[in-house]
Amino acid sequence: MNLAWLYWGSVFVLLMAISSAFILAVRQKAFHALTTLELATVALLICLLYVSAIPWQVGFAKVPGLDALVFSIPYTAIFLLGLRLVPKAGVATLMIFGSGLFGQLLGRGLNPAWWPYYLMCGAGVEIFLFLVGRSMRSFWAMLGAGVLRGLLAYSYMYLILAPFLWHQFYAWWYVGLKTSLGVVGCTIGSWLAWRLAPAVEKAARYSNL
How far apart are CA 181 and CA 60, in angstroms? Predict the structure, then answer.
């Protein structure tokens, strides 16, 4: 299949999904403005998400298998804790897209070809949260959001983005292995977030965040 058609086809599907979800959310009045403190909290979380990727960037990417597992644990935990602290529509996309954009600004510069990847992960979680009522009080809701982000991130990366951007093609078993290890990391990260969430929320209340 032509790689350009595959990539732009995924972008089209993404835009249709985002548009449909946005219209549905507006009709359900799901959007609420973020306060100044919430915006500051999201900005801090975006920085933490970027920091969580540094070990992967400086060496773990060269260790077969460990990259997906190690990277997913802190990223997922921080991401889910952010959703517990600021449980509003759009925050998932804002965190994922913001951390990706922040990384580009600190790295080799802006590259719009990566933006659908960030939006795909964010929009998928947003739709999931909309379906479960945006309740992150359940462990299974946190696990579902964390694992879903991992599935979207690794499958899109290895099946669409890598072949389109770098002309690197991976065997199905390799994609399955990397995705599975990433999901294991997301599961561990979800459990950590679930265990840490009450303490983090309590600390946030005492600090008036």
Answer: 14
Q: Give me the chain's average pLDDT, please.
A: 85
The number of angstroms, rounded, from the C-alpha of 126 to the middle of its chain's C-alpha atoms is: 10
Give the separation between CA 125 and CA 127, rounded to whole angstroms: 5
Q: How many CB atoms lie within 10 A of CB 39?
A: 13
Model confidence, pTM? 0.88
User: C-alpha angle with apex 30: 187 to 191, nearest 5 degrees?
Assistant: 15
Domains of the chain are 35-52+66-206 (1.10.1760.20)
Scored b (16 or more CB within 10 A) or e, 47-61 reads ebbbebbeebeeebe
The rounded distance, in Å, linking the Cα atoms of 144 and 181 is 16
Q: What is the DSSP letter of 138?
A: S
pLDDT at 57 over 70: no
Half-sphere exposure of residue 44, counting CA atoms within 13 Å on the CB side?
Answer: 13
- Predicted local confidence at residue 193, as pLDDT: 95
Provide the pLDDT for residue 61.
54
Token code pair at residue 29:
């009045």
